[in-house]
């Protein structure tokens, strides 16, 4: 972020061309960027972590998608403790809910709750622990396909068919069941990564993912 004034001025200039009375919302992960945009009345809004109740609501949507939560009191109790470890991060609640959606036993949920990854320091683990857990529980073939996406630049938008063809070209899809076509198997891999959710749609109902 060691930019000079001219660079920052170039960054701000497109936002000054709006009609009188129009408003522009700029989002950023960096407070310095927010201040350099010179918001009106020097006001910028910092998003706070979600409450445990809101985080729990997101978790339930994914972990209990096809189950009646009242019929699984033990899972509910363990899930509440898992959500507390998410520190109010909606992405963490979402991905862990996706991991636990297919897990039925108490010990599988307790394994997530008691994982050592929660206690790692920032120097030992530079990603959100929940994302590390979610990746750890991927089948090997899905890990390979997801890791391939590291070749894309950040925030790159891709189509399902485009990525499946790339996976096929790299030999990452190996048919295991009868005469199942590689394209069909690749589609299953892709949908599984969406449901986890390592991939999500870009925009409202578009055909591209990030």
TrEMBL record:
Q: Give the residue spans that cross the bilayer.
A: none
Q: Does the keyword Repeat apply?
A: yes
| UniProt xrefs under InterPro entries | Apaf_helical (IPR042197), Disease_R_plants (IPR044974), NB-ARC (IPR002182), P-loop_NTPase (IPR027417), WHD_DRP (IPR058922)
UniProt xrefs under Pfam families: NB-ARC, WHD_DRP
GO terms (molecular function) for this protein are: ADP binding
A biological process (GO) of this protein is: defense response
Give the top-rank taxon of the lineage listed in the UniProt record for this protein.
Eukaryota
Occurrences of domain Disease resistance protein winged helix (ranges): 152-202
List residues of the NB-ARC domain.
Answer: 5-67
Keywords for this protein: Plant defense, Repeat
Query: Does the entry feature the keyword Repeat, yes or no?
Result: yes
Listed name of the protein: Resistance gene analog
